[in-house]
Predict the 3D structure of the following.
Amino acid sequence: MNQVKQSDWVARSLQSVWHPCTQMQHHESVPLIPVSHGKGVWLYDADGKRYLDAISSWWVNLFGHANPRINAALKDQLDKLEHAMLAGFTHEPVIALSEALAKKTDQVLGHCFYASDGASAVEIALKMSAHYWRNAGHADKCEFVCLKNSYHGETLGALAVTDVPLFRTAYGSLLQSVHVVMSPDDRAAQEGETGLDVARRAAHELETLLQQRANHIAAVILESLVQCATGMAMHEPLYLELVRALCDKYDVHLIADEIAVGCGRSGTFFACEQANIWPDFLCLSKGISGGYLPLSLVMTHDAIYQAFYHRDLGRGFLHSHSYTGNPLACRAALATLAIFEEDDVLHRNRQRAARLTAALTPLAMHEKVRHFRQRGMIWAFDAVLDAEKAVTFSRRFFSTALEQELLLRPIGNTVYLMPPYILDDAQIDWLAERVRTVFEHVIGQMPTQ
C-alpha cells in the first residue's frame, strides 16, 4: 500500500472508528499506525515498516502473529462448526478445553463458565459469588474487597472493584461501593523492610476489615502476583497464601483475576501455583486463545457448582453471552495449550527470561531508573520524573519506540515489556538494546525546570 493509501486509511479510521482507551484528539499529533499484517514477533504497517510487538498486542499474543499451528486448528474448525449456542447444546472444543484446564488444576477447579472478555469474566465471578451466598442462605454477604490500585475491567461490576480514578470518576454514581485495602506492592517497602514484610502488612490490614465485615463480604478479588494495568506492581506469593488462609478463616471467597498474568505469563501456567493455593474463582482471558479470538472463562470448584444445582430455575446461574464457548475460540485455546506442552514453553521461558533480564542489566543500573523488576515474562521499571511529566514521558516514549521499530506503551512513568513467548536470542538482545536506546533518548529530550 503506498503512502497516499496509507494516509487515506488513517483518515477513514479517525472518521469512523472510536478507538479504546484513547483520547481521540491526541491522534491529531500522534498518528495511528495502520497495521497490514503480522508474522511472528513482528507487526507490519501498510508501508512495510516492522515493529517488534513487545507488549504482545495488549498482552494477548503468546506465540506470535499468524502462528502456523493455531492457524491450522482454526482452518480445520471452520469446516466443522463456527458457532452454536451453549444453552441446551454443547460441542467437542468447549468440552475438551474445559477438561484440559481442569486437569491443570488437578481437578480442584473442575467447572468452567465461558464469556468473551476479561471484564465479563470478572462480572461472572462477582455475580456467582454473591449468588452462591444467597443460595446458601446468606444474602447479606454481597460486599466485595479489592486492592488499592487494582484493575479488573471497565464494565460496571468490574469497574466497581477497580481502583483507578481515571476510569472510575465519570461513572462513580453508577458503581457499587466496595472496600479497598492496601496493595502488597513490593515498592511500598519501608526502610529495612522486604517484600515479604509488605505482604504481611497488607494481609494484616485485610484481616482487620474481615474481622469487622466478614458477615457481609462475599469475596476478595485480586490480581495474582502482578497488578498490571496500574504500573506492573509486583508482590510476593506469600500474600496469596495469607489471603487464602484469611478467606478460609472468615468464610469469604477468593477471586483470582489471572486475565493478564495467567497462561504462563507469571512463570507458571496459573500464577497462584507459585503460592501453592487455589482460589474459589479463577478468571482467564487474553492469552488463553493465543491472541486470536475473544474468549474468557471463570473456573470454580464443585462446592460452588453444587450450590446452583437445583430444580428451582431461580437458583441457577442465568448469566449468558451469545458467543459463550464459541467453537473457533475454543479451538484456538486448545491449539495454544498444545503449544505449551509440545514446546515445553514454561521451561524455555525461564531461559528466555534469564537472558532478557541479563541483557537489560545496563538499563536497570541507569541513574534515571528505579524499581527494575521481573516476574516470569514480565519486566518493568519506573522512570525518575516529576509527576507532571509522566504523561509527556509516556507519549514520547511510545512515539520514539515506534521510530526504533518497537511497540511499547508505558503506563505513566512505568515502562514494561510483555513480549511473546517465541523470542530467540538475537531478538532478545536486539530488544534490550533498543529499549535502552529509546529510554536514553527520551530522558535526554525531557524538558527540565
Remarks:
- The first strand starts at residue 35 and ends at 39.
- The mean pLDDT is 94.
- The two ends are 44 Å apart (CA to CA).
- The chain is about 40% helix and 15% strand.
